[in-house]
Amino acid sequence: MKLSGVLWRGGIGLSILGSLFAFQRPFREFPGVEYSLGSIPLPADCRDKAEWAFARLMFPGGGRDDGYYPRFQGDYHYGLSLWTQDFPRADRHFSAAVRRLTRIHARSAEQVVDLDEDDAFDWPWLYAVQVGEWGFTAREGKELREYLLRGGFFMADDFHGDYEWQVFERGIRLAFPELAIQEIPKGDPIFHTVYDIDERYQLPGADHVRMGYKRPLHATGPDDGKGGHWRAIYDEKGRILVAISYNSDVGDAWEWADDPRYPARFSDLAMRLGVNYIVYAMTH
Fold it and tell me: Rounded distance, CA 89 to CA 213, Å?
């Protein structure tokens, strides 16, 4: 389906979203685990209000008990926690692609979302990285559930292997204990909203391109972490609430999209997937 047709169908929804501009929280910078505060230049429109911004979920740690990234332990509300992996470079690269490839009124800078402050409802699309290492709480699960059942969309990315799957599932079950997690079928509209994505393959992080996959720290066998999976949680009407990229690092493919050392085919797929997910989120 052509993008113009999709956006026409979603025109009413977008106009309603526009009424929320006045309630959007202001932009705020955070330090990340890979980039220090101010090391990435701020886009000129970072404080503009928009129909869409790269809304990144902050969350407490707690998925690991082995001292992984010990120097990043602390109050996650101030950054320097694993929710800032690839941040903000991935966010801004992908936001630039959304501005270039769609007609969505998109801001060039990210928006950090704290479920404890109830500000997720201003944004139609929410993203989280390293969800195999989160310490999601019951309160956050309740807030995420309400956000999604009221029309929101959540993309969970960059976790690998059986151990991290268990940590992710334990957290997401705080939001949806009753709904199944399933593989997204090839014919699902989410793979065909803007681009027809019939071929999907594992997206390795920049540090794992040679292997083609990331071997998890808690690997349960030689094949643990191999094979990308595109899974989802659906509501009772068949709308995707949670899109899950398991054993793939979409965020890295966005982050390194401008680096010739990172294979273009991985970034190409990541960009097309992301655009499809956003348009789906804003029209379904």
Answer: 21
